[in-house]
Amino acid sequence: FPTRRSSDLMLCHAIAVVLTMLAADPLLGVPLVDRSDLVVTIDRVGLEKIKTKVLDTVIETDKANLVVSVRVKNQTPAKKILYSGGGYGGGLFDSDRGPQASDEHGNTYRAETGHLISKIVGQVDLKELNPGEEVSDLYVFEASIKEAKQITIRIPESHLKWMHPLVIEYDVAKKTAKLGADQRSEEHTSEL
User: Fold this and answer.
1) Residues 51, 178, 24, 8: is their CA dihedral positive or negative?
2) CB-based contact 65:112 (threshold 8 Å)
3) Which of 6, 47, 89, 179 could be stapled to 183 by a disulfide with Cβ–Cβ 3.0 to 4.6 Å?
């Protein structure tokens, strides 16, 4: 049985994990788990130019887009998982509206994906992940208006096979990202 001292130490460790997640920009590089078989690590969030491949030609955009770069890993020991990436536009009968971004003024920003003959470089459509396999992906959105200070990015649970969507709050001026207010709980925990 745990002693009072070991219980106190476990509680202190749990509080330290939560405080780490709530610190300024704690999101980058921290693996996030949602009681699922996929672990997501967010590598960067910000405005950047993207590259699109049209047939055999790569073209860089003139304007910067809002980009969320992630790594997704299948943590199961023996099960394949079909990952719906940032480039997945959804099927004909999907009720899922796909990845979304909005600002504090109520403006929404379209998720950018490839088309029939073009593909955003670094973006995944659908990918079957073998046990232990990891893939890098980009969620790309049109750039926000200059008056926007806070962008909320929502990646639906269906993309990540999670119980809840992944919500990221991006501070445009500070260029920092954190978990959405409704997710600063045990639903999303870091693997430390």
Assistant:
1) negative
2) yes
3) 179
